[in-house]
Design a protein that fits this description.
The chain is of the alpha/beta class. 30% of the residues lie in helices and 20% in strands.
């Protein structure tokens, strides 16, 4: 990330071939208050990275963030594979996003509040349809120490220019 994160004790690590300005990933790091790993393109695959992150999170008794960028169906498939590689049982994972088909507990965007007061080993937040900072902040708090927050995002080169349901709700007519 340009300039890195200057907060004491936070050392963001980004594994990526593309980080767009203005860095949307900075929001993820600031909200998570932890290390964020972004896996896109060539290099370490999400399965190996997820397993490594889970081990690191367990050793440090902290949570980790894994961001998977790409097309919606591809990132959902990769997230499921990454969670399996990290040995996180489906019963300890919640997916928050559009539609069905994810083999874990699934909540729609408007149902994310149901997780408040709970603790999950992994939470998958699908930002393809909308990405709300408040929802992301709530979900981070539900990930247990040693767990993973997996954030699914559009291709990083497209995300900054992309409008979604959330920012449309902020727009004021001229």
């Amino acid at each position: 990330l340009p300039g890195g994160d200057r907060r004491k004790g936070v050392s963001p690590k980004v594994i990526s071939s593309v980080i767009p300005p203005p860095c949307t990933a900075r929001l993820l790091i600031q909200l998570a208050g932890t290390t964020a790993y972004i896996a896109v393109g060539a290099g370490t695959g999400p399965m190996e990275l997820a397993a490594r992150l889970r081990e690191e999170a367990a050793r440090s008794d902290q949570r980790r963030v894994l961001v998977l960028a790409g097309a919606p169906e591809r990132t959902r498939t990769r997230a499921s594979d990454a969670l399996a590689a990290a040995a996180i049982p489906p019963g300890e994972t919640t997916y928050v996003g559009p539609g069905e088909g994810f083999r874990h507990e699934t909540l729609g965007y408007s149902e994310a509040d149901r997780l408040l007061g709970t603790s999950r080993t992994a939470v998958v937040y699908d930002c393809h349809g909308r990405c709300e900072p408040n929802t992301l902040g709530k979900l981070v708090g539900t990930v247990a120490a040693g767990g993973l927050l997996v954030v699914l995002v559009p291709p990083l080169s497209e995300w900054p220019a992309r409008r979604d349901g959330f920012d449309r709700s902020l727009a004021v007519p001229p």
